[in-house]
Please model this.
Amino acid sequence: MSAVLETSPFFLRPMLKNDMDEIMAIELKSYVFPWTRQIFIDCLRAGYYCQVCEMHGYIVAYGIMSTGAAEAHVLNLCVSSERQGKGLGRQLLSHMLGVAEQKKIDTVFLEVRPSNSIALCLYDAMGFNQIGERKDYYPTKKGREDALILAKSLAKNIAKSFPA
Model:
């Protein structure tokens, strides 16, 4: 199965506090246990890399990534249900990985539900590998679900940095 890349004009821009109504509409529609408005505001306040993807004047996707100590963590990546399956998630994640490379990040981490097969396919296609699990990390309607911890190395020529 191949994704059809979105051909409509879109652009990425920094997330603003004024975007919260549109972001929350997508978040609430996308997740049974969504982030709260305050979590998004806290990410902005903390200075995380927060981007939105806009098409025709509307937010259709967003991503949040924290960086520090040569590591990055993708905290949230979401595409509106109407735009899923058209390559926007891949393009947004690719952009975020490019930003991480520019910041000289060695490794990018993220957590994902094992039940989120669409996200798992994207992360696998983008070169992420499972490195661990977090037990009972996510809430579910009937208890808790583990998280898979995924990582992608961005380090270039690691072997060359060590003398033989």
About this structure: The first strand starts at residue 10 and ends at 14. The longest helix spans residues 88-102.
